[in-house]
Amino acid sequence: MIEVRNLSLDFGPTRVLEDISFDIPAGEFVCVVGPSGCGKTTLMRVIGGLLKRSAGTVARHGETVKGPARDIAIVFQDYANALLPWRTAEGNVSLALEAAGVAKSERQARIHDLLRRVGLGNHANHYPSEMSGGMQQRLQIARCLAQDPAVLLMDEPFGALDAMTRQRLQDELLALAADTGVTVFFVTHDLEEAIYLADRVIALAPNPGRVQDIFDVDLPRPRDQLATREMPEFLKLRRALFEFMQAFEA
Amino acid sequence: MTRIPSSGLWILVNIAVLLAAIGGWALFSRSGIVPPAFFPGPGKTWDAIIKGIENGSLVAETGETLLKMAYGWVLASLVGVALGAVIGISPWARAYVAPMLEAIRPLPASAVAPVAIVLLGLTDTMIVALIAFGAVWPMLLTTVHGFANVHVRLGEVNRALGLSRLDYVRKIALPSAMPDILAGMRLGLTIALILTVVGEMITVQGGLGSRILLASRRFGAADIFAGVVLLGLIGFLTNALLGLIERRVLRWKKR
Amino acid sequence: MKSIRAFAIPVALIVIWEAIFRFRDVQSDTLSTPSRIVVALVQGLGDGSMLTATGDTLAAGGLGLLLGSVLGVVVGTLFGLVPVVSRGLRLTFELLRPIPAIAIVPVAILIFGFGYAMETAIVAFACFFPVTILAEAAIRQVPPRLSEVSRALQMPLAARLFKILLPAALPRLFVALRLAVGIALIVAVTVEIAANPMGLGQRLMLAGSSLRPADMFATLIWVGLLGWVLNLGLVKAQHVLFPRMAGSSDAAT
């Protein structure tokens, strides 16, 4: 359970986030959308403990977030920079387990299980430089899952990938989330992706970043790339979000 | 780093060109542009090398040179990497110490030789100290650079995973800095060889540097050339060896 | 603020150094105090001896730099224009390159004796190889579009070279020059320390062996200053001549 109350953040003289409040119950899949520069990535980083807030509180289970926590996993947009290029896929996933103090004998099994789950079972001995973008992003997700996280923060994770890979990873992510019950905070600029994935969509207005609207996504699970995207509720939300974005195009 | 073309045909061509160059050397020596007594050809040089190996002097002196070079270079590596890691990781240290280091960098290490002599005399210790002093700079500076430039994202991953300080250095910062560190070590090797020769020429107490300087005093040109060939070989082989190690350690880099 | 921190430790060290020697009234044949070193430096400059030595070193080093660089640019350009030659000579080149320039000193002594010629020859040898490599790279990195245009215009080789390729390669050639200047100074001083009785290197050795540590350190500092000023001058010149060159950092070793 993540509680954000009156969160504000300044970068020097500029107020970047203003009076943001919302709750995320455990297990919920929340997407955050907004025009470029609205502060959605910044908001994610504050929740992740990478940035310190200027005012307000961010709490988990009632305790203030003071810094990065081991059970909050962050999936960065620039996956290549977030992976260790000198370690194989196996080694990269292992890093999270080593950090958690998992005994060496246990590590092997868990690593291979995680790699299999993200579809990299046959690539355990490959270096990131030998993998495609989609594979590298999946590797980062695998490492994040190795942290056994309660919360998954994701910063436009599929932005740099092609459409086909993106759709496949969206479905894989949904399956993983359903399997593990992890809470997901997903930042994206792709409105349709946000609706497709989320239980709720937070629309952030820019300058300064503030919550303009929170939409409930009343679509059945499991989601389907074709069927769900044609449902009237989907289209209604799509229009609402597009209109929200339109206001800032001017 | 330039690599020798590895396709079969080109290897043959290169060998042929090398043999031609050696032939050119022989012709030049005989031509008299420079008195042949001062510029022996490959034949006389080879004879001098064989003679030196047979009476053991060349082998012993090569060994001495290599030993000093190794001591000095290893010492410089240890100090350079350790100190570089400490300075590179701490922004505080970087602000206070790095500019000072940058200022000393352009100073030719060999210019410190007289100071070394004054402090340590004409001894092998002086030579090793000189080598270490000269070779430490590229290693120190590249290591600082490597540790200071660990990608921001990796730093955040480190914080997110909650790694200990020691683990951060061991598992993230050091491997990340490795390309820089190895580049510095390679530069340090070149400097180490130069300073070994300089030191041996000044002290004239053993090693290839002393050998060739003494040879010049008695006009033993073939002996000089023999020594130069060996020094070139040392330079070539140590560099190649380090290059091989570098390629192995950095095999994860994109081909 | 930044520059204050940069000077904090060096200044502190100098003050401590001076203080230790003063308060303990240390007399030393091997070390000296910052104040005496400064005095020695001023004296050396004032009586002209430092400048004479500097002139000698710069003359021999400069001539060697010129010789080695010109040859290096010529050969490097050849390598760049005719890659076949470059590939064929690769092994020979790579076997000659690791020979430390200082090792050639005894040969040069035999041929030239002591003095300017010997030092010039060694400096030229030392500058030749790095300049050749950099010049070849500079020619190779000329955008292929430019060479195609020159060939389409059917320009004769000389015109192609001097009107298009060399001017396009000039910024990188200048960086090669900067590196060569650094090498030339270091090698010149080294030759003087090891064998040649002239210039700043000899001054250093004489001061050391005749137990004049203040003079020795003063000369050492002067050599460092010389290198620093030369590099700074060239960096400034580079910014003036080639303002749009990106990534031309003088941290390149």
Q: Would you mind describing this structure in some detail?
A:
- The complex is a heterotrimer of chains A (250), B (255) and C (253).
- Chain A is of the alpha/beta class and 250 residues long.
- Chain A has helices at residues 40-47, 79-82, 89-99, 104-117, 133-146, 163-180, 191-197, 227-230, 232-249, and strands at residues 2-11, 14-24, 29-33, 55-60, 63-64, 72-75, 151-155, 183-187, 200-205, 210-216.
- In chain A, the strands form two sheets. In chain A, strands 6-7-8-3-9-10 form a six-stranded mixed β-sheet, sandwiched between helices.
- In chain A, helix 6 (163-180) links the parallel strand 7 and strand 8.
- In chain A, helix 3 (89-99) crosses helix 4.
- The longest helix of chain A has 18 residues, at 163-180.
- Chain A is globular and about 50 Å long.
- Chain B contains ten helices and no strands.
- With 255 residues, chain B is mainly alpha-helical.
- Chain C has 253 residues and is mostly helical.
- Chain C has helices spanning 2-23, 34-46, 49-81, 83-96, 105-112, 116-140, 144-152, 157-194, 199-209, 213-241.
- In chain C, helix 8 (157-194) packs parallel to helix 9 (199-209) and helix 8 (157-194) packs antiparallel against helix 10 (213-241).
- The two termini of chain C are 28 Å apart.
- Chains B and C meet through helix 1, helix 4, helix 5, helix 6 and helix 8 of B and helix 1, helix 4, helix 5, helix 8 and helix 9 of C.
